[in-house]
């Protein structure tokens, strides 16, 4: 078997191994091996020292520079949560008070689901309220006013 085929086989094995390992690391070694194997096949490389050096340089450079770019594109970036974000889309929505609030807490219904809620204002059963904050299973509400509609 020709020498270049070892590089090609190793490169393909490393690229396939990336699917099992997942971490966006092994694939760069596989791509480097495929490049070295291709250059060896074309007759541009004939010295083992140069083959290993080129393999190491391509692997490390792509790992350092390309991985950061691909990692952001493929894996996404984490963002710190700011106070006003509401991933459930509840803030600003209308809810209905189920029973009068006592000591600043009670329950409301929103789209057929019952939620624990708190408010700094007195609220009566059947009153329409606006959701102002969503924190886990708790909602903070205030009376609905037409002026803020």
From TrEMBL:
Q: Does the keyword Transmembrane helix feature in the UniProt annotation?
A: yes
* Record Pfam families: NfeD
Keywords annotated in UniProt: Membrane, Transmembrane, Transmembrane helix
InterPro entries on file: Membrane_assoc_protease (IPR052165), NA-bd_OB-fold (IPR012340), NfeD-like_C (IPR002810)
Keyword Transmembrane helix set for record: yes
> Which Gene3D superfamilies does the annotation name?
Nucleic acid-binding proteins (2.40.50.140)
GO CC annotations on file: plasma membrane
Stored PANTHER family: INNER MEMBRANE PROTEIN YBBJ (PTHR33507:SF3)
Q: Which residues cross the membrane?
A: 7-36, 48-70
Task: Tell me the protein's name.
Answer: NfeD-like C-terminal domain-containing protein
Source organism (scientific name): Alcanivorax nanhaiticus
User: What kind of membrane protein is this, topologically?
Assistant: Multi-pass membrane protein
Show where the NfeD-like C-terminal domain sits: 89-143
Where, per UniProt, does this protein localize?
Membrane
């Amino acid at each position: 078997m020709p020498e270049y085929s070892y590089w090609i086989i190793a490169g393909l094995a490393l690229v396939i191994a990336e699917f099992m390992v997942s971490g966006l690391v092994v694939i760069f070694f596989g791509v480097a091996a495929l490049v070295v194997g291709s250059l060896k096949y074309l007759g541009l490389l004939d010295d083992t020292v140069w083959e290993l050096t080129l393999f190491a340089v391509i692997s490390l450079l792509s790992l350092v520079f390309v991985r950061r770019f691909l990692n952001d594109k493929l894996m996404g970036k984490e963002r710190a949560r700011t106070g006003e974000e509401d991933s459930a889309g509840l803030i600003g929505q209308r809810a209905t008070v189920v029973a009068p609030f006592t000591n600043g807490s009670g329950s409301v219904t929103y789209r057929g689901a019952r939620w624990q809620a708190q408010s700094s204002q007195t609220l009566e059963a059947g009153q329409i309220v606006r959701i102002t904050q969503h924190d886990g299973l708790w909602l903070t509400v205030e009376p609905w006013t037409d002026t803020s509609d």
